[in-house]
Design goal:
Blueprint (H helix, E strand, L loop, with lengths): L6 E10 L2 E11 L4 E5 L6 H8 L6 E7 L2 E2 L5 H6 L2 E4 L11 H6 L11 H7 L1 H4 L11 H12 L6 E5 L7 H16 L3 E6 L2 H7 L2 E6 L2 E7 H6 L1 H8 L2
Parallel strand pairs: 3-8, 3-9, 6-7, 7-8
Antiparallel strand pairs: 1-2, 1-4, 4-5, 9-10
Bound molecules: adenosine-5'-triphosphate (ATP).
Adenosine-5'-triphosphate (ATP) binds next to strand 2 and helix 1.
């Protein structure tokens, strides 16, 4: 018997003013699963994450998390249910040290990692504990952005393009960290345009085009259908 998915998005539509960005987004994520949202620039991937989080408020359809409807809820209420969001722009405090960045986020649920544990988990950050955000490399900033959302105790992570703008060797390291989080039982929904990176971390892929889901593939199916999926991404 299949258990209910942890997250179930159904017929999600979203607007920026009069402009409709999402037309029909439906997919689900099982407990412990790592799912990517892939698609080209402007397809609606970030808007999907922002709609789940309630940051895009002009939205319709249904978003069930642990069977509870998130539609109509405010962002702080959604966060308190156990969903953490790492935005594309990373959102770290540039003038604060790594350690300060890790101590600031509120604790929303029991079981979050302490700053000491976070520095052990991300050795690159430990070496930079007293450095300010502005002194970090792009890869270190991205790791800090992911690390800081692990403090609040949320077990469902929304990660928006963690590989963006990073050198291949750094992308590999981020991938390793994300796989470790999955092994620790986190459920992850990851927005990506880097297909190789997506393949290296995910169980399943949801393809978005023009604000709608056009395909869903397991990682094995993606390997077989790689050329077709590449056309969705325009590569
Ligand atoms: P990207 O990787 O470029 O962010 P994406 O797939 O995440 O691509 P979205 O950022 O979700 O795409 O954008 C979906 C559509 O919504 C695009 O047409 C975009 O121009 C539009 N859009 C995104 N943010 C805003 C905003 N704040 N105001 C108005 N339109 C927006």
């Amino acid at each position: 018997a299949r258990t209910d998915p942890l997250l179930k998005v159904e017929n999600l539509r979203a607007w920026y003013g009069d402009s409709q960005a999402l037309h029909d987004v439906s997919f689900d994520v099982a407990q412990g699963e790592l799912v990517t949202l892939i698609g080209r620039n402007g397809a609606g991937k970030s808007t999907t994450l922002r709609s789940i989080m309630g940051i895009v408020r002009n939205r319709k359809g249904s978003i069930l998390f642990e069977g509870q409807e998130l539609m109509g809820k405010r962002t702080y209420q959604i966060a308190r249910k156990g969903i953490a969001w790492c935005p594309e722009e990373r959102g770290i405090f540039a003038d604060l040290s790594v350690r300060e960045n890790l101590t600031l986020p509120p604790i929303l649920k029991p079981g979050g990692m302490s700053d000491a544990t976070l520095l052990e988990t991300f050795p690159n950050l430990k070496a930079r504990a007293t450095s300010r955000g502005t002194q970090l490399s792009g890869g270190e900033q991205q790791m800090l952005a992911i690390a800081r959302i692990l403090r609040n105790g949320c077990r469902f992570l929304l990660l928006d393009e963690p590989s963006e703008g990073l050198a291949p060797v750094v992308v590999k390291e981020i991938g390793r960290q994300i796989r470790l989080l999955k092994e620790q039982g986190y459920t992850i929904l990851l927005v990506e345009q880097n297909l190789n990176f997506a393949r290296s971390v995910a169980d399943r892929h949801v393809v978005i085009e023009n604000g709608a889901v056009v395909d869903t593939l397991t990682n094995d199916e993606l390997a077989v259908d790689l050329d077709r999926v590449k056309t969705y991404l325009g590569v």
